[in-house]
């Protein structure tokens, strides 16, 4: 669906360009009681559920979206592997929310074509 598109490739490039945001000495103090991995999983899950709720999808399309979410999570784990067990800063949370929202937008565009 989207992981093979130019838009998704550009999003991954955007993510890699933001890696300094995830360095340990960047941003505000960490106050989260959850890890970056948990944050990414939660936000990705929330956005995938929103896609399901906002669109009437057949079972095959739903399964394709779940597979896409797995592939996206795999990509995020690859890029952020060294920091996934850290507690996110407010800036990191904001970026993850924005990034996952952009992924949802790509899915919405694909479904509306």
From TrEMBL:
Designated name of the protein: DUF3802 domain-containing protein
Taxonomic placement: Bacteria, Pseudomonadati, Pseudomonadota, Gammaproteobacteria, Alteromonadales
Organism: Idiomarina seosinensis
UniProt cross-references to Pfam families, sorted A to Z: DUF3802
């Amino acid at each position: 669906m989207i992981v093979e598109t130019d838009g998704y490739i550009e999003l991954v490039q955007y993510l890699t360009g933001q890696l300094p945001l995830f360095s340990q000495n960047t941003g505000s103090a960490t106050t989260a009681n959850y890890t970056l991995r948990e944050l990414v999983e939660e936000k990705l899950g929330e956005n995938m559920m929103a896609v399901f709720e906002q669109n009437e999808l057949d079972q095959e399309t739903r399964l394709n979206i779940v597979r896409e979410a797995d592939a996206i999570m795999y990509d995020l784990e690859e890029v952020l592997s060294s920091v996934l067990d850290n507690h996110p800063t407010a800036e990191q949370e904001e970026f993850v929310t924005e990034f996952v929202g952009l992924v949802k937008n790509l899915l919405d565009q694909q479904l509306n074509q």
